[in-house]
Design a protein that fits this description.
CATH class: Alpha Beta
Helix content: 25-40%
Radius of gyration: 19 Å
Oligomer: single chain
CATH architecture: 3-Layer(aba) Sandwich
Number of domains: 1
Distance between the termini: 41 Å
CATH topology: Rossmann fold
Largest sheet: 8 strands, mixed
Number of strands: 8
């Protein structure tokens, strides 16, 4: 398995198996810290997608690459039944515990599985959703095709993910920073790529929204398992700062003063995660 990029080098292209190994390693390591963040701070995002896909009590659904249940735990409040599917046991256990605590186990189930090969029959569900998973997967078109396969005619697909602009130089620097932070990052897609993939899968886009999520660079790295003393943290931060003048990586980084009660502390580095929300119907 590749150990990640060396300082100053472009992010490598990984095989599907290498990428899956990095995904499992990363989300095992950060099951608690990432799980706490995603389930707590992405409630509004999950509810936004539920609205966009018109989730209702007649729907049987799947949340693929579900992680800590970011979507499944919210959608369970709207649909008849939902299955959260992921191939990292540690993060699935985190999701099960949250479902039990919230009294949702009658409406949500969790199982080990691969988003690129869903264990459901053709047309057996009304709804398929996923959040922040496609940029971790080597073949996102296959995932969207699988989502379309398992839903009925007129069924809906919902996706939340990060997106990048068309400019190849911006995409390259964005990818380099993302990969240093998280070696399970495959690549981010442009809006045009999303539209093409959905169309090829026989899905008609009903709604699309763009939302950027502000956060500190420190927190962004923290939920990925890095400390300020780590070389990966330092390298990613240096590249982020270097992109401030022309927003060369599409994170819109900026410095803001810290709390006045912390004299001597460096200004906080803030950034935006550009997100895309897509709701589509099987035609």
């Amino acid at each position: 398995m590749n150990s990640g990029p060396n300082p100053g080098e472009a992010a490598p292209q990984l095989s599907d198996e290498e990428l899956k190994a990095f995904v499992r390693e990363r989300f095992t390591k950060t099951a608690e810290v990432f799980g706490d963040y995603a389930v707590t701070h992405r409630v509004t995002e999950a509810e936004t997608l539920a609205r966009m896909v018109s989730a209702n009590e007649n729907d049987r659904a799947v949340d693929l690459a579900c992680g800590p249940g970011t979507l499944a735990l919210r959608f369970a409040r709207h649909v008849r039944w939902i299955c959260g599917l992921d191939f990292t046991p540690a993060i699935l256990e985190r999701a099960r515990q949250a479902a039990a605590r919230d009294g949702l186990l009658e409406k949500v189930a969790f199982t080990i599985g691969d988003a690129q090969s869903l264990p459901f029959a053709d047309g057996s569900l009304e709804l398929a959703v996923t959040s922040y998973s496609l940029h971790h997967i080597s073949d996102p078109a296959r995932v969207i095709s699988e989502m379309a396969r398992v839903i009925k005619q007129g069924g809906r697909v919902g996706v939340i993910d990060i997106e990048v602009p068309e400019d190849p130089a911006i995409r390259a620097l964005n990818h380099r920073i993302e990969f240093i932070r998280d070696h399970s990052h495959s690549r981010s897609l442009t809006q045009r790529e999303f539209e093409s993939i959905f169309a090829a899968a026989g899905l008609r886009i009903m709604g699309m929204e763009h939302k950027s999520h502000p956060r500190t660079f420190e927190h962004w790295m923290h939920v990925a398992g890095w400390k300020p003393s780590d070389s990966e943290y330092k390298e990613a931060r240096a590249l982020m700062i270097g992109s401030i003048e022309n927003d060369g990586a599409n994170f819109q980084p900026r410095f803001e003063p810290t709390d006045v009660c912390q004299p001597g502390k460096e200004p906080d580095l803030y950034m935006l995660n550009p997100g895309i929300y897509i709701a589509a119907e099987k035609i």
